[in-house]
Fold this protein.
Amino acid sequence: MLAFAASTFAQSATATATATILTPLSIANAGDMNFGNIVAGAGGDVTLDPVALTRSTTGPGLFGAFTFALFDVTGNPNSSYTISLPATHTITRLTGTETMVVDAFSSDPATPGTLSGTGTQTITVGATLGVGAAQVPGVYENAAGFTVTINYN
């Protein structure tokens, strides 16, 4: 009799299992960073601000055009993603061994970013270039480039 009474109180419920497969995130370079033409003088910093879309200086003379690094991101529409920027990046004079450091990287949007309803967004990246006093004239670059990484949140 006890066995029969215990089974009358048993209850059950069901649940469903779901999964969402996301479109893989991708990122592609859409433009390289160029601080423009600089006269070093006593040295200082040159900053590219990706939010204000401006270039500023704490000393060196600035001339000519400049460009921000641009990255096109695609993925699942309306998804949020994180942006990881480098801490520092060293550029070297093409015909020498002199260097300058690029740091204080920033982006627009800042992390996290959100893809549009069509699953796209362009990230604008700026940074600060440290120019030494009487920096040796020439073109400075790092052909290997710097890396921007994205991940779904």
Summary: The two ends are 56 Å apart (CA to CA).
